[in-house]
Structure formats: structure tokens, C-alpha cells
Amino acid sequence: MKNDTVTMIPNSISPYLNEIAERLWSGHAAIMVGAGFSKNASPNGTSTRGFPDWQQLGDLFYEKINGTKPDNKGKYLNVLKLADEVQAAFGRPALDQSLRDVIPDYEYEPSPLHVKLLDLPWTDVFTTNYDTLLERACISVSSQKYDVVINKEDLVYSEKPRIIKLHGSFPSERPFIITEEDYRRYPKDFAPFVNTVQQSLLENTLCLIGFSGDDPNFLQWIGWIRDNLGSENSPKIYLIGVLNLSSAQKKLLEQRNIVLIDMAVCSNIDGSHYKGLKIFLDYLLSRKKEDNRLDWPENSELSQSVPQKEKLIQIEGIVQIWRKQRLTYPGWVSVPEDRRSFLWANTRNWIEFITSEDKLPGCLDLEFVYELNWRLEKCLLPLLSIQQAEFIEIILKKYWTQSEIINLNELRDHVPPSSNINSIETDKNTMGKMCIPLMLSLMRFYRTEGLQEKWKEINRKIADSNLSKYLTAEHKASLYYERSLFALFRLDILELKQKIEEWPSNESLPFFEAKRAALLAEIGEVNTAEFILEKSLKNVRALLNLKPITTDYSLVSQEAIIMLLLQYVQLPKSFGNADQNKFSERWNVLKQYKCDPWNELKLFASALERAPIIKPSVTIKQEFDIGRTTPTNHFVNEDSEALIAYRFLIFCEDIGLPFRIPNVDIGKKSAEGTLLRISQYSPFWSMVTLVRIGDQKTVDYIFNREYLAKIDEIAIDELITEYVEILNKVQDERQISNFSAVLAKVIPEILSRLCCKCSTKSKDKLIKLLLRIYESDHKRIYSGIQNLTKRLMNSFTIQQRLNLIPMLLDFPLPASLSPRDEFEFAHPFQFLDIDTEDIKTWDKPII
User: Fold this and answer.
1) Contacts of residue 378, Cβ cutoff 8 Å, sequence gap at least 6
2) C-alpha to C-alpha distance for 606 and 456, rounded to whole angstroms
3) What single string gives the DSSP state of each residue in 162-191?
């Protein structure tokens, strides 16, 4: 039936039907059903009356007023005016009863055509019909549930898809819109209905069936749409049926942006409205997209296998498979968990397959590394070792000079006959676009590992070289985001603000605008963030209206994440309760495309909020022979606990989710769970995460006695220098930001741990920092000051404590402080712990 239907459609109308079908199956098509469609109903008996057309209805009104049927002398032009006269002569109840008498609603049952119509995924079904055929047809529809709306008050609580009765409904939902006065007052009296249709027209393709060219309902609704949207801005509307229109009628409708699809041009119609509409509905059903991308990526035996011999052939084969999978990627911002696990299973065995020692033809090594890096990012994993980063650096140096991508011809000296590399587009532009993501990936790795000089080196290369011509708009936005994150990881609030200000707004990239808003929310600028997020949500939905959802889920994925960010930013206004019901209807639609960030966060929480299962870095296996053992080293890519932690941190970066915003903890518990899992692999990343969480209690997760025993004095001094500089910048702020308050809450507790094993020079820095804080007007934002003061005093020798006395005399005495601040800012003399005998040994007091 599918192929037969397709062959029946002539070329003159197939492009229009294809457009409608694409919009329909992507969730962007609505339909309005007129009185003519009711004539397709199934009669209950052989002598059942037919449904009247407008001329027959006019004849009825004429006879009721004049007592005789119209003849050649008694013609009329306006059915609606006759209805007004009936109402004037006999009253409104008589007019309504006339309609009930002449329209044989319950003498008919919905036909298969009614069921077929409702089985299609319309966003809404509007109808001007009074009969109940569509409502009764719902019983036979299993693919979806329709809400029936018969009065304007029900619109507020209805959920799509809906059957909306625009002109009243039998038996008694009145007024039945029929008179000229009804139509005149309709836009005012039934404004919710008019607005709903107009909004649907802005968001969807609108199809009209069951209407004739001179149908008053059709003419009135088209007029209202043009009045409100303007003739130039009115989107195209499709009128479908066996139309029987004159050339003058066709021209007039086309001028009003009505696209006419006359099904009479199909074969074997023979003027049958039923057959014409059946072919229309069958064709829409035949165009249903069966090949979705929800199960991406496709399975591949080669990608699952463990790499073995014939390395060159295997590399060429896997690169082609990976490229095909990348090009068919459906565009999720973050790969759903089930597909992510599948992707990782098909990638992990290839991570260390090639090294810098391998000599590969052409730019095959660049292509392999590019595809592998792309897959790691989709698996939500950073580069897993410094060796991987160094290997990527070697590859980049091979293809990228100080200022330019090299000429590819220099690499093609030898290409083995078995190689397929010649079939791959590897011009300079393609190579440049492969280098950029690798450089961004390196920047993320160096940032998260605290290798700031190496990060700055790549940043300078991108800024100073000709690589800018290879940067897409997305690359540029990613680079601004990376620079902002670099400032955030340095815990430099002033630099972060500067980088956000340097980041140019680009409404054509609403998701990156949302990520910029999330950074603003984390540093306390919640109102600005909310404004940007609301605008981003509006823009991404506008783009969705222009681009049907087929196998590209990028925009719906972005929409779901922006909705999540917006809800969290608005939490303080809703007293801390996430109102998921606000977007509940839309959430359900987006879930069908596996766009469900709420569920992703729940999965991370269930894995990270339990105690980690710590595996030893080396496992000793007892062999059969007594006394013989085999050691096995376990690396980070085999530590499942570490991998889930990395994935959560990358997930938050990729979607722009902060761990906390003012008065709201978002992923705090999950973020805490990452500290115990990756601190041994990525200590710097763990420290930054700890500070961003903003909870003193988490300090012990990293800065405990075990950590201090492993780290040397030089490394501790470096950390103290960095943290002291951060708190000095906090002191320099005229107006303390939310993020600075977080730093002041957590860093003193960290310093109180580090001072137990630092040099005397670092201790002097801490004394000066404490004095500055004690003299500050910002005391209220600090926590952990007492612990820092107490532990710092205890870290000095007796002689050093004695030498400190002149400096400690400069510390102000607590005065006019709150009980909490009096506790935190107890005078250092309370912790000096010097007795009389110690004073006798005091040799040289410092002046």
C-alpha cells in the first residue's frame, strides 16, 4: 500500500505533500477540519439523511423565514445573514435547534478516514464542526491521547494533542457560531481560541481539509489570521481536498498565501472527496521516518574487536568507520548514558593503538587521533594521561607550523597500494578544522591538570597564528568558553568577569549564550543569567520551528539543557523547589529523542553519592605454582569509579551546569563524590572542584593527613602562594561577589591544613594575610579563620612564636562583632601557647 500510494501522487503536488509530511513527523503540523469532512462519516442506516452543505443550510434558513423554499426569484447571497434573520425572528434557541435538527450527528459513526486522520501526530486538531465525530473517533485511536476542548476556559488545563471545537459542540455547548454577529464578535468573545490558532500557525504548518473555497468558516478564519499577522508575514497554509475551484478562486486564494493541493489530479479519484483525502492521509503515513538515530552508533565488528596485526589496514578501516559514525551523529549535546556506554565499549581498546613511533602515510595519524579524540569527548572523558597529550602535541607539530597548516603534498611521498587514504578529503582546510578541536582538547587537559603555562602557550598560538581562518563560529564560542573556564579554575573572579565581557554575544548560537549565562549565575549575577537563558530558550525554539526534527536532535537537546539551567537559576524565586512541572509537557516530548538531562543527573547521583569502591593500582594474582605471582597495573581508563567521576565533571562543563549558585546547591553531592575518585589522578582538578562546591566540610576529602604526608614542602609552598594571592584579590574587591564569598569560606580551611608542613617564608605570608583579614571590613564572609590562626600558631617553634609577638600586637582586638565573628576572629595571642619559662629563652625580639 505504501508504494502504491506514492506512485499515485503526481509531481505537481508531491513537493507540497513531502513538506507537510516532514513537518508532521517532526512534530510541527496542525490541521483544521471543516464541515465537508463530516460527509465522509459512516451512516447507521440506508435511509440516513446526509450532512448539509452551506447552500442546503441557507435553503433551510430561507424556508424558515419565508415559509417557502428559495426559487429563481428568491436567491440569497449570505448564509450568515439569513442566520441572523432566523435569530431575530424566532430567537436564538430556535436557531440552535434548527442546526441540531438538520445536522444528523448521531445518525453517523466515524469512518476509517476519521480514525486515520487522528492516528497521525498532529500537534492540534482544530474543527469548526458542531458534530461529535472526531471525539468519538478518538476511541479507536491507540497511537496518542487527545484532550477535547469544547470551551475557551478548558484551554488552560489542556495538553497537546487536542481536538479544539472552535464553533461550539453538540449537544449543547453554545453558542453555535453561525450568524454574522457571531463572527463579528468572535475575535473578542473567543480571543483564546483565535490566539491559539494564530500561535499554532506561527509554530506549525497548518493544513485545512473539509473546506470549500467559498466556505464562510474558511474565509473568516483566513481573514482573522491575516488581520493579526499581516498579509506579508502570514505563513503558508495548505488547503487539501478535491477542490473544484475556478481559476479566479484559485488566484484569489494564492494571493492570500493559501497553497492549494487538489487531490483530484491523482489517478482513480473520479471526483470522490473520500478517495482524495484517503490518498492524502495514506501518503502522510507512508512518509513516516522509520530510520531514527536513537540507537546511534551503528554496530561494527571492527570497532568492537581488539586491535591485532596488519596495523595500517586496521587503522584505515577503523578511521572510515569512525568517520561515518561521526557524520551520522544525531547532534546530542551530551550522548545519552546507554549510547555513551556502547560508544566507550567500541573505543577503549584503541586508545593506545598507535604511538609516535608509527609511520603512517598521508595524514592518517592526524585523522586517527582526531576521530579518537572526538569519541573520547562524546564518552565524556578528558585525555586520560599526559602521554596522550604529548602524543597529540607531536601530531599537531607535524601538521601545523608556527603560523600555518603545512602543504599536504609534502606528506604524500609514499602511500601503499592497500591504503584508502587518497579517497579522504585531506586538504589544508580539512586539516585545519581537525587541528582546532585537538588544540581545544589539549587546552582543557592542561587547564584541568593545572599546567597553566602549557595552556597559555596554545592560547597564544591560536591568537597569533593564521589558524583563525579555520575557526567556525562554534569554535570561537568554544574558545571563549575555555578561556572563561581557565579564569574560573584559577579562581580569579576579576579575570573571569573580564573574559565573560570579552565574549561577544551571538544569538545564532543560543546554547553557548546559555553556557555564558551559567557562568554568570555561578558568580552571583543571577538576574542577568536568567534574562539570557530565557532569551536563549526563545531563540532555540525559534530555530526549531525552522528546522524539522528528523535525525538531528541538536536543537531539542539544547532546548532540554537550557530548560534545566533556567529552572535552577529560577530556584531562589521558587523557594528552592525545582518545579519540573513547569515544563512537564515539553519534557515528555523531548524524552522521546533521549534528551533528558534530569535523568542523566539522577544516574550520576546514584553512582557518585555512594562510597567509592577503591581498587588498588596494582593487583597481585596468585598463580598455580606455589610462591609465584603476577602483578597487574591498573590505569585510569580501567578505574570505573574514576571514569564516572570524570564523566560527571565533563558533563557539567559540556552543558554549562555549575555546582552551585547563590542559595542553591545543584550538583553538590555528586561533585563531592568525584573528589575521592579522581584526587589521585587529577589533584588540581579536585582542588578546584572542592573550592567551587563551597563547603568547608569537603576540605578533608583532599587536604587530609594522608595527602600532606605525600606532598613535599615545595609543592605546598606553591599552593599557599596561589591561595594567598586569591584571598588578597578578594580583599581588593570593593563589592564582594558571591563567588568571592565562596572562596573566603573554603580557602582559609585549606590553608589551615597546608600551614602544618610549609616553609617559614610561607608562614610569614599567612601571618600578613591574617592581619589583612583581621583589619578588613569583609570579616563576615570568612570561615575557617580560627582554625587557620590556631594551626598556624601551633606550627611555629617556641622561638618563632616569641619573635612574632611584636607583629601580633598589630592585630586589632575583637570589638563590635557578632558572636559568630568573635569566635572566628579570636585574637592570635589566645593560641600563642607561651609560658614564663619560654620568655626567658627569648633571644632577639623582631623590631
Assistant:
1) 329, 335, 340, 343
2) 37
3) EEEETT-BTTTBS----SHHHHHHHHHHTH
Chain Cα centroid distance, residue 690: 26
Dist. CA 681–CA 637, nearest whole Å: 11
- Please report the pLDDT score of residue 385 as a whole number: 83
CB 126 within 8 A of CB 164: yes
Distance of alpha carbon 49 from alpha carbon 1, whole angstroms: 33
Q: Measured between alpha carbons, how far is 557 from 656 in angstroms, rounded to an integer?
A: 13
CA nearest to 37, candidates 202, 250, 280, 235: 280
Query: What span, in angstroms and rounded, lies between the C-alpha atoms of 488 and 522?
Result: 10
Other C-beta atoms closer than 10 Å to the C-beta of 474 total 14
d(CA 546, CA 561): 20
- The x, y and z cell numbers of residue 633, run together, are 597495573
Q: What was the pLDDT predicted at 174? A: 79
Name the DSSP letter for residue 491.
Answer: T
User: Residue-wise over 14-40: b if at least 16 C-beta within 10 A, else e?
Assistant: eebbebbbbbbbbbbbbbbbbbbbbeb
- pLDDT for 211: 86
d(CA 191, CA 197): 10
Q: Indicate the angle between helix axes 510-522 and 554-569, nearest 10 degrees.
A: 20
Residue whose C-alpha is closest to residue 163's, from 123, 200, 192: 123
Distance CA(813)–CA(126), nearest Å, equals 77
| Strand duo 162-165 + 42-43: pairing | unpaired
CA atoms within 13 A on the CB side of 542: 11
Q: How far apart are CA 591 and CA 557, in angstroms?
A: 9
| 3-class SS letters over 101-130 | HHCCHHHEECCHHHHHHHHCCCCCEEECCC
Q: In the structure grid, which three cell numbers stand for residue 820, read together?
A: 559568630
Please tell me the distance from the alpha carbon of residue 42 to that of residue 44, in angstroms, as a whole number. 7
> 147-149 and 162-165: which strand pairing?
parallel
C-alpha cell recorded at residue 328: 551520522
> At a CB cut-off of 8 Å and minimum separation 6, what does 238 contact?
16, 20, 205, 206, 207, 208, 258, 259, 261
- Tell me the three state secondary structure of residue 831: helix
Q: Of 739, 738, 802, 727, nearest to 772 (Cα)?
A: 727
Residue 459's pLDDT is what? 92
Low-confidence ranges of the chain (pLDDT < 50): 1-2, 407-426, 576, 624-625, 631-635, 846-847
User: What is the C-alpha separation between 124 and 133, in angstroms, rounded?
Assistant: 16
**How much is the pLDDT for 410?**
47
